[in-house]
Amino acid sequence: MKIWKIVPALPEHIPAIAARMREEDRREVWASHRHTPGQALENGLARSELAWTCFVHGKPAFMWGAARQGSLISRTGAPWLLGTEGIYMVRREFLKQSRAYVELMQKRFPRLENFVHAENRLSIRWLQWCGFVLDDIPELINDEDFFMFRRNADVYTGSSNDCGDRHLNCRQHVRAE
Fold first, then answer.
1. pTM tops 0.85
2. 42 pLDDT exceeds 90?
3. Mind listing the domains of the chain with CATH numbers?
């Protein structure tokens, strides 16, 4: 029996995730923007053109997406992911799907970039798994170390099924050599 499912993110998913957000994610949203978990999720969802929620055992466990940076004609998106400890229960399953979701974001935004708190080790490993490159030297944001991460579409090759914005069964993409 499948214990998880991914659906388009909705505002009503936010309270369950905010109330149980991983400590690393709490620290990151406070250090970066002085936001509470609920404020960070509300802001992320409101600004995102693509966003999903993963339910684990019928409860919202984590949410992620990509928000356009800059003007309406910008081709740069800011990917984000915030969640609960429930992410650990479906880690392998989510890793199998992650690259396909990043590729879908990259179809909308050829350049993806954002910052990750230097102490958020799980997020850093996930970003690297998905093919993002992190700067070697952290930047200070509100007196905390953050690494900028980025991924450019022209660095990747591969093909995928035409899956649209709502359903993904894409093959994983690999970094061009």
1. no
2. yes
3. 4-175 (3.40.630.30)
